[in-house]
Amino acid sequence: MEESHGKWGMVIDLDRCNGCQACVTACSLENNIPATGYDNASYGRGMHWMRIIRTWEGEYPDIKANFQPVMCQQCGRAPCEPVCPVFATQHSQAEEINLQVYNRCIGTRYCANNCPYTARVFNWFDWEHPEPMNYYLNPDVTVRGRGVMEKCTFCVQRIRRGEETAKAQGRGVQDGEVQPACAQVCPTNAIVFGDFSDPESRVSQLASTQRSARLEESLGTQPRVVYLQSLL
Q1: Is residue 78 part of a domain?
Q2: What is the pTM of this model?
């Protein structure tokens, strides 16, 4: 059977997101992201690959909090790619995912400066994982050393596992079979992940609604993360 790859993407329903941060926690645990602590975070050295933007709407006492998860937008025309002098940031032509090759990265931070979504973080230190925290490290994901850039990869290790399992069984990847950590733990099902090349997939159908929008779409970066705008 010929190997096939999906055009992976994500849809986030802003009406469903309640800002619980479960996605941020799951992302950190799945991808061996260290907890840097309050002091380092206050210096802008937080390592999380996702953040929840909170905005307020209305005037007191009739005020409403809005939440928007933001991660690497997996741009089809990623501004971070052409500026890397060592080609550490690569675009997967098969899945159309922006990948980071850690053993190439020399930490110039050109990619971070060229990212309009502030979705990349620089690893400042060799973070320690004292016992028993070292036991939670995911063996499918490398533990990065200081001096490299990091970012969301749509949990590419899960994508690879799903594709290899489907190939071994002589079939294609089924809709909903591959779930990144953030989508798996979302208690309100605000995050939907799937194959944009499949018109019958849930992400394709949600992205085709009138509520769909992309961050800074006017820049022409062609993000693969779609947001469903609030109905209210």
Answers
A1: no
A2: 0.91
